[in-house]
Design goal:
3 helices; two-stranded antiparallel sheet; 113 residues; alpha+beta
């Protein structure tokens, strides 16, 4: 699993191959969202690829407005890979969205107990 950290994805690597290389992942990052896109809209667009466990559009704490990105968690890796392959660089509410496998959080306190 740690070896997957050193493998870079290139444009010719298929999503299913990339999934195999990097290990288990059923959570997608969705960037480039319209600031008007909400969780029901995002869920509606992605649920055709498989069962969704959670959809989250990230919002500013003060204003409550979308920051333009979110996450979609599927119940299976296959559904996530299918959604990635189909939805990446597609139009959603007038914006080209970018879909990638979500990366683990890295932060100041991640390795502290």
């Amino acid at each position: 699993m740690f070896s997957s950290l050193f493998i870079r994805r290139n444009s010719i690597t298929s999503p299913l191959r990339y999934l195999t290389i990097r290990g288990s992942c059923s959570k997608l990052f969705v960037g480039g969202l319209s600031y008007d896109t909400n969780e029901p809209v995002l869920k509606n667009e992605f649920e055709k690829y498989g069962e969704i466990i959670e959809v989250k559009v990230i919002c500013d704490h003060k204003s409550g407005k979308s920051k333009g990105y979110g996450f979609v968690l599927f119940d299976s890796e296959e559904a996530a890979a299918s959604a990635l392959a189909s939805m990446n660089n597609q139009l959603l509410e007038g914006r080209n969205i970018r879909v990638e496998f979500a990366q683990p959080k890295s932060g100041l306190y991640q390795n502290q107990k």
